[in-house]
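Title: Prediction job returns without error message
Component: structure pipeline
Severity: low
Priority: P3
Assignee: unassigned

Description:
Job completed but the reporter wants confirmation the result is attached to the right record. Sequence as submitted:
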Amino acid sequence: MPLVPMRQILDEAAKGGYGVGAFNVNNMEQIQAIMQAANDTNSPVIIQASRGALKYSKMIYLKKLMEAAVEEFPHIPVAMHLDHGNSLDTCKQAIALGFTSVMMDGSLSEDGKTPNTYEQNVDITRQVVEYAHPLGVTVEGELGCLGGIEDGHGAGLSADEVDAHLTDPEQAEDFVAKTGLDALAVAIGTSHGAYKSGRKDPETGEMLPPKLAMERIHEIHKRMPNCHMVMHGSSSVPKELVDIINQYGGNMPDTFGIPIEQIQDGIKHGVRKVNVDTDSRLAITGAIRKVFVEKPEKFDPRDYLKPAREAAYQVYVDRMKAFGQAGHAGDYEAITLEDAKAYYK
């Protein structure tokens, strides 16, 4: 099975009422872990790469790894997605590389840091849609700005600034209509990275989950029940993974992620794509640190990359089950980009 358009995966998820994890990758071990997890849970899956990941992997290597992934598991519907594209040219490069889906993050300017005006966001997102759809390629856009920075991309907004850049449901309706995009990333208070909350219990001092504006997802879904929403910055940052890192020499105090229950609430109200990156990074780092401390004589990369791959695999399995995509890989016959061209016509 070749890579499939992400639009089909999201459409089918909407029919089944589940979400699909979109997992960021940088190397072979992550791709192998994702594909093994998808196979073992019988899950459709979205694999995504940021501009930073493409630079790190030199693009062509990532492309060949993805070709190997779909060749090894031909029965698994897989979409390859560009995460946080910053320009039409960047999206064009990804499409030329074989990506079946691209994100044009027009919420920020091309520097990936400065918030755009609404009009600028509409204009650049529409340009990408007009280029990608005739090629059968899915387009995701973003309205509002997230907190945190990922791979150098993000405005680095404070908590108060994030509140001022949340997605407005009425504006979201206008944005989807004017751009014609396939998936809408919404800003509801999530952040990239492992530090998604600065809230603490005033009595105990314990970290609290970030305060999410879930009602905005509910309202957008009410206004546009067929709109596929995307939750960025949705790693749950499990305490047990952070504890392993800190136990073996790390220094990550006060981390906090998004509770799975809130993601599942989003899925019930139209969220179809759930972006997860930090959780696998934590699992990989903890596994490697453990080997370095417990077996300092080891020097073969396979001795620590194998347990790292296994730790990431468990994260992917857990998320695929939690999001509801497990068991749905065989529900439909995957289409090609050629088929998607006809759909967009």
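Comment from assignee: result matches the submitted record. The radius of gyration is 19 Å.
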